[in-house]
Write a structure and sequence with these properties.
Blueprint (H helix, E strand, L loop, with lengths): L3 H17 L2 E6 L2 H12 L6 E7 L13 E7 L6 H6 L19 E6 L2 E6 L11 H10 L4 E2 L1 H10 L5 E5 L9 E7 L4 E7 L10 H10 L8 H9 L6 E6 L10 E4 L12 E2 L2 E2 L9 E2 L4 E6 L7 E2 L5 E2 L15 E3 L5 E4 L3 E6 L2 E5 L1 E4 L10 E3 L2 E4 L8 E4 L3 E3 L7 E4 L3 E17 L3 E13 L2 E15 L2 E4 L5 E9 L2 E7 L7 E5 L3 H38 L4 H37 L5 E8 L3 E5 L2 E4 L4 E9 L2 E6 L5 H6 L2
Parallel strand pairs: 22-24, 23-25, 24-26, 25-27, 26-28, 27-28, 28-29, 29-30, 30-31, 30-32, 31-33, 32-33, 32-34, 33-35, 34-36
Antiparallel strand pairs: 1-3, 2-3, 4-5, 5-7, 6-7, 8-9, 9-10, 11-15, 12-13, 14-20, 15-19, 16-17, 18-19, 20-21, 35-38, 36-37, 38-39
Helix pairs in contact: 8-9
């Protein structure tokens, strides 16, 4: 690629070269003698000379009327095609440079078998129009004497850039310009070499050149612009590139684009508020069922090349690449798309795309693992250290202990050791919680909470049952709520620790009801204050008949706010009514049971009935009867729960 500055330098040098071209007007008894004389005087071989005939010679008869040949002879200088140069110039938006801003009109004379043709071009920019004298000089140099002067004047004046027949000459086909065709580079390039026409011979035309190329087997890649340029600016006795074959273009290979991070274990730290949270390592890449994991761009067919003689050069088509899938991944019918079949963790293992429904941590959840968020089941073979969280769309299973952490699962949470919340840990599940013990923690379960050693000073809610049965199974301190049943070996302690147990309603719904009631009360207070302010402004308006602009705007603002709050109160009332209807629909009254002892300090709520235990009881079940708590014989838990206790 050449730049405009390089092109400018070339053109300057070309002008200088043109000035240095050797030329001379010579005379001789024949054209050959004149050319030999020019070769000697210019010190240039004859095959590098180009000439124009100024005067035609004549042998005369017996020496009478003899006339010498007069030729204008100059050295042939090989020129670079300006078209090719322009095509390679680097495109520059500013400033735009016109290569031929100013150009004089030009004259072209062509001799063909049917006459003499003249073409005149218009000047460009501030270029000068061609003068009739110059046209006549060119015609005379070609040895033409029979022409229509009126027609020449008309052609020069119109300058239509078209060849017009203006005369005739004594045509001698033997003296036509000759052309040779050479094919090189494994038939990928063709060159022509042309000798100038002799006296009475015709010039080459575009159609002549094309026909000769075709006759010599050149049928592809002909540089038509170069042929047309050669027609007007012939280059004699030098090799001229006239055709180029087209190289084959191999097709591109198939490419698989993965829509996930292939580098498993690559740590990505996110900065929030100017601080990096080293617990958020993002080691897991979650996907959902139906998600596109990879797409393949099919291989492309190659484009065959052709030699200048028309032979086909076969191109290679691109290589195909298959999307290799493993577990829980399917391919589209056309094999170009990999789709996840389940929610889980996507991984590239041994070149196969897999989606694992289980994410396994081989040790503890700590700074090396960071917090875990997974659309499947998480198994931790160690413990979960303080300050970390696990959130899973499936189950969470912990082989060790759980510290002051957050566990949140849509499925079950299973802790093989215990939950040590330290008054800050929180465990929430969409199904059930199973643990050896729970201490100083907040636990919420949609179904069951099942423990086999004890629940100490914790807040535990279960929409169905809380079961605490084992050799040392006791519920001591805290507040436990269940819809159907609370069942433990011991309730409370000898020390009389306050232990609150509530059954007979949905604890999460009741808690939500409480928060809604509080929110409604606060909003209604705001509404009362707004109503009072509106009333005051309206009374003021009655007295003054008109409020100031500021007070009127305030009244409008208060009215709008009142409407918004009323709408919010209506929505709260709707949700409150729905929760109350749900609580009323619960048929089971609930029961609280102890398979060994119930100590004083235990407070029992069964729906609206209340009992504070002041004496020790053994092997009892508390139920509600006639809106009172009644003590009955102990009712054992179901066998299924015995098997499921960790």
């Amino acid at each position: 690629m050449i730049t405009l500055s390089q092109l400018r330098e070339y053109m300057i040098k070309q002008v200088e070269k043109d000035k240095e071209v050797k030329s001379k007007e010579v005379r001789g008894d024949s054209m050959e003698d004149a050319l030999k004389t020019a070769s000697i005087e210019l010190d240039v071989p004859i095959n590098r000379l180009q000439y124009e005939i100024i005067e035609r010679g004549n042998k005369g008869v017996w020496g009478v009327g003899k006339k010498e040949w007069v030729l204008f002879v100059y050295e042939v200088v090989e020129k670079v095609s300006i078209t090719n140069l322009i095509e390679n110039v680097v495109h520059i938006e500013q400033p735009q440079i016109e290569l031929e801003k100013d150009k004089d009109g030009e004259v072209f004379v062509r001799l063909t078998h049917d006459g003499v043709y003249l073409k005149i071009t218009k000047p460009v920019g501030r270029g000068k129009p061609l003068q009739e004298k110059r046209a006549l000089e060119q015609i005379h140099r070609r040895g033409v004497t029979r022409y229509d002067m009126t027609l020449i004047s008309r052609v020069v004046k119109r300058a239509e850039s078209k060849y017009i027949r203006i005369g005739e000459f004594d045509y001698n086909p033997i003296n036509d310009a000759t052309i040779s065709v050479d094919i090189f580079d494994m038939e990928m390039k063709a060159y022509i070499e042309v000798t100038p026409p002799r006296l009475g011979g015709a010039d080459l035309t575009y159609d002549n050149i094309i026909a000769i190329l075709n006759n010599n087997g050149v049928v592809h890649g002909i540089l038509e612009d170069e042929v047309r340029q050669f027609e007007d600016y012939p280059q004699y006795n030098s090799r001229f590139l006239i055709a180029e074959g087209s190289k084959p273009q191999n097709g591109s290979d198939a490419v698989v684009q993965y829509h996930f991070n292939k580098e498993r274990g690559h740590i990505q730290l996110h900065e929030e508020g100017g601080r990096v949270d080293f617990k958020e390592l993002n080691l897991i890449e979650n996907v959902v069922a139906g998600q596109v994991l990879a797409k393949k761009t099919p291989p492309q067919k190659g484009i065959d090349g052709r030699t200048v003689t028309g032979k086909t050069i076969p191109a290679k088509s691109g290589n195909d690449v298959a999307i290799v899938i493993g577990k829980n991944v399917k391919l589209s019918e056309d094999g170009t798309t990999a789709i996840s079949e389940i929610n889980g963790q996507v991984m590239l293992l041994a070149g196969k795309i897999n989606v694992e429904p289980i994410y396994t941590v081989n040790g503890d959840v700590n700074l090396q693992t960071g917090n875990i968020l997974f659309l499947g089941t998480v198994i931790v073979k160690g413990s979960v250290l303080d300050g970390f969280s696990i959130k899973a769309a499936g189950n969470i299973e912990i082989k060790g202990n759980v510290g002051k952490c957050i566990l949140d699962a849509e499925g079950d949470i299973i802790v093989h050791q215990g939950i040590l919340g330290k008054n800050g840990g929180q465990v929430k599940t969409g199904k059930s919680v199973f643990s050896k013990f729970i201490e100083h923690a907040r636990v919420e379960a949609t179904d069951y909470v099942v423990v086999n050693e004890g629940i100490l000073h914790s807040m535990v809610d279960a929409n169905k049952k809380i079961i605490c049965q084992g050799r040392r199974a006791s519920i001591v301190g805290g507040k436990l709520r269940a819809s159907e049943e609370i069942n433990a070996k011991n309730l409370g302690s000898i020390a009389g620790t306050e232990t609150v147990l509530e059954v007979g309603y949905d604890p999460s719904s009741k808690e939500r009801l409480g928060s809604l009631d509080k929110k409604k009360t606060d909003i209604e207070k705001d509404l009362d204050e707004i109503e009072l302010n509106i009333k005051t402004l309206l009374n003021l308006k009655k007295v003054q008949r008109k409020l100031s602009e500021e007070k009127q705007n305030y009244l409008t603002e208060l009215s709008s706010k009142r409407d918004t709050i009323k709408t919010e109160v209506d929505l709260l009332n709707t949700e409150i009514d729905e929760i109350k209807a749900h609580l009323m629909s619960i048929k089971k009254q609930g029961k609280i049971s102890a398979s060994e002892k119930v100590f004083p300090g235990v407070k029992l709520y069964i729906r609206d009935a209340y009992l504070e235990v002041k004496n020790e009881f053994k092997f009892v079940t508390f139920i509600m009867e006639n809106n009172n708590v009644r003590i009955t014989k102990y009712e054992a838990i179901e066998e299924d729960f015995r098997r499921r206790i960790v």
